[in-house]
C-alpha cells in the first residue's frame, strides 16, 4: 500500500473508532494501489444510537502529495431508511457550479466540495443532538 494512502486510512480508522457511540457494521478496503492507474476502494457502514446509518464509499488514488477521491458518496439516512443527506460526485447535475461535486439535502441540490469523514460526522451530530 502506498504510504500516503496508509496514513489516510489510519486517520479514517482513528476517526471512526474515536466515536464510541457508533457501531461499525462494515469496513472494507479493496486495495488495488499496487497496480498502476488503479484505485483503492473503501466501503464503510456506521450505525448510530438512534438507528440511523451512514454509508461511505470512496475510490482513492494516491498522488505524490495527496489522496484524490475520484469517486465518493456519503449517504446518511434515518432508521426508517429516509435520506437525510448525501454527498457525492456522480456526474448527474452538470449545471451546478463545482460540477460534479454536490450534496442532496431534501429536494435541494447544493454545490459543495467533497467533505471529509470528520465533517460528515459533525453534521450527523447536529442532526442527532440539534440543541447542543
Question: Which helices and strands appear, and what pairs or packs with what?
Answer:
Blueprint: H1 3-17, E1 23-31, E2 40-47, E3 53-62, E4 67-77, E5 83-88, E6 102-105, E7 108-110, H2 117-128
Antiparallel strand pairs: 1-2, 2-3, 3-4, 4-5, 5-6, 6-7
Characterize the structure shown.
- The chain is of the alpha+beta class.
- It has one domain.
- It has two helices and seven strands, in the order αβββββββα.
- Strands 1-2-3-4-5-6-7 form a seven-stranded antiparallel β-sheet, with helices on one face.
- The chain is globular.
Brief rundown of the structure:
By secondary structure, this protein is an alpha+beta fold.
Main attributes of the structure:
alpha+beta, single chain, seven-stranded antiparallel sheet, 132 residues, 7 strands
